[in-house]
Amino acid sequence: MAQPSVTELISPTTTQRMRLGLPGLRPMLIMGIVALLVAIFLLSLVIGSVSIPLEEVVRILLGQEATKASWSNIILNYRLPQAVTAVLAGAALGISGLMMQTFFRNPLADPFILGISSGASLGVALVVLTVGTVTTTLLSGLGLLGDLGLAAAASMGSAVVLLIVLWTAHRVSNGMTLLILGLLFGYLTSAMVSLLLYFSIPERIQAYINWTFGSFSSVTWDQLLIITPTIIGGLVAAFLLSKSLNALLLGEAYAQSMGLNLMAARFGIIVTTAILAGTVTAFCGPIGFIGIAVPHLCRSLFNTSDHRMLVPLTILVGALVALAASIIADVPGSSIVLPLNAVTAFIGAPAVIWVILSRRNIKETFAS
Q: Which residue, of 48, 132, 298, 331, has the greatest Cβ tally within 10 A?
């Protein structure tokens, strides 16, 4: 008898056995999340150090004149790009975390487990901590240290680590080995950053630390022209990888015996994760906990492990969590701006703890 294909691998019978089917979904809950996402998006435009009435926000978004010219400037040049960035970044980090947790079958995996974030941090550290005054002037003339300077440095650092990871993935056949090597790459790059920090002057150290706090507010419309198509392309790739991710839930050996091209799937997942996480890190800094917490929240809320359902749900919940964190970090009604990473940790850590304590069968999702 012929072996079933990967498509047959996710048939209703199998999905029911693995809790991967549609019955676990609740349409009303999905509609509620969409409505809440829209409400929080509008709320992020309304509140801040300066409160702007909702009707004025709507007028500005529709292209009409606001009562105060300053309100249009605040909405269009500051709050709207920040909100759009939060939506894109939250979706990208959530999907990246989902793919890494499935790929390694590890509930604590996050988008930066392969050292992508450490590579980006090293690229930024090399620019911020080592570039001298003369060199800064020369590079500024070339545009390397303009609005896209840190993003370019972070992207190059992520790309170098990605190439190393891909080369390693081609040589090793075991996912756990790749996981360990990815962690080691991260430790090596972090060690290099620590050495740069040790020999740097306080002003440059402070500039680097500010970048590590993470922020959605520093992204401009010009940068969004780069971020938006890149992240959307990565999210589309994640949709296309849904069947492969479902197959990997059964284990690499079993999925390969069912007809899955393991090397192609591994390459696609790693590249997609690197593009999504690397883009967010380059423009917003290393933002933690969203990638860990959001996939667990989606699995728990909808009681499903089917990536055909989890991918769109994770996009929505990821965007929602990132927007909420952005609003909290801005401390509405004051001029204080909290570190975004601190806010995501306060949101993400309790969420993961709650999921782990309340869901006894969490190991079944990643069982071989």
A: 298
Q: Quick one: average pLDDT of 48-53? A: 88
| 4 Cβ contact list (under 8 Å, min separation 6) | 11, 258, 259
Asked if residue 18 belongs to a domain, the reply is: no
Secondary structure (3-state) at 49 = coil
On the 0-12 / 13-18 / 19+ scale of CB atoms within 10 A, 225 is exposed
Q: Return the percentage of the chain with pLDDT > 90, whole number.
A: 32
Q: What is the pLDDT of residue 303?
A: 82
Assess whether pLDDT exceeds 60 at residue 364.
no
Position 42 in a domain: yes
- Identify the domain containing residue 299 by its residue range: 26-365
CATH number of the domain to which 115 belongs: 1.10.3470.10
Q: Are 81 and 219 in contact (CB under 8 A)?
A: yes
Tens-place pLDDT, residues 126-162 = 887 776 433 343 344 434 344 466 677 777 888 888 7
CB atoms within 10 A of CB 215: 21
Contact assessment for residue 117 and residue 100, using Cβ atoms and an 8 Å cutoff: no
Write the DSSP string, 233-287.
HHHHHHHHTHHHHHHHTT-HHHHHHTT--HHHHHHHHHHHHHHHHHHHHHHH---
Task: Look at the chain and report how many structural domains it folds into.
Answer: 1
51 part of a folded domain: yes
How far is the C-alpha of 233 from the C-alpha of 209, rounded, in Å? 30
